[in-house]
Amino acid sequence: MAISILLVDDSKFVRKGIAKELPDILRGRELIFSEACNGNEALELLYVNSYDIVFLDLTMPEKTGYQVLEALKDKGIKANIIVLTADVQPESERIVRSLGAAGYMEKQRPLNRDALMKVLQEMNLL
Ligand SMILES: [Mg+2]
Fold first, then answer.
1. CA of 95 to the centre of ligand 1 (A)
2. Of 8, 92, 93, 94, which has fewest CB within 10 angstroms of its CB?
3. Structural domains of the chain, with CATH
4. What is the Cα–Cα distance from 45 to 126, expressed in whole angstroms?
5. Under a CB-based contact definition with an 8 Å cutoff, are residues 75 and 46 in contact?
6. Residue 77: partners with Cβ closer than 8 Å, 6 or more residues away
7. d(CA 95, CA 119)
8. Collapsing DSSP states into helix, strand and coil, what is residue 85?
9. Of 8, 59, 11, 69, nearest in space to 33 by CA
10. Cα of 26 to ligand 1 centre, how many Å?
């Protein structure tokens, strides 16, 4: 069965980086990618579609990742969200998890493949 993935990040490089790694990690599965480059775009998509995995940046224009999580929580929308951040801190992990994020990973350049696999494993997606 195909896996639908929403990539939310204001950096095109980050979106492309994840899209490039995932086919090899989720080998043999058909992947359907969608992208959003800010929080408002992400919410427009998340209000009408459901995705198997959502990668969500925290620092973005329009609405931040925190605001996206809050808006989804307010509306009672559940999504399998992996938060991406360049600035990993226990406090921000606690906040995003309390707002419903299922995974939390550090954004590195190039993308850390092991970290990506670990977070997908934790979410039982591998
Ligand atoms: Mg950003």
1. 18
2. 94
3. 3-122 (3.40.50.2300)
4. 25
5. no
6. 46, 47
7. 17
8. strand
9. 8
10. 25
Ligand 1 centroid from CA 64, angstroms: 8
CB 95 within 8 A of CB 73: no
Cα distance between residue 95 and residue 98, in whole Å: 5
pTM: 0.94
Distance 93 CA to ligand 1 centre (A): 16
Q: For residues 8 and 52, what is the distance between their CA atoms, to the nearest angstrom?
A: 14
Q: How far is the CA of 84 from the centre of ligand 1 (A)?
A: 9
Alpha helix stretches (DSSP H) within the chain = 12-25, 39-48, 65-75, 90-98, 113-122
Q: How far is the CA of 7 from the centre of ligand 1 (A)?
A: 12
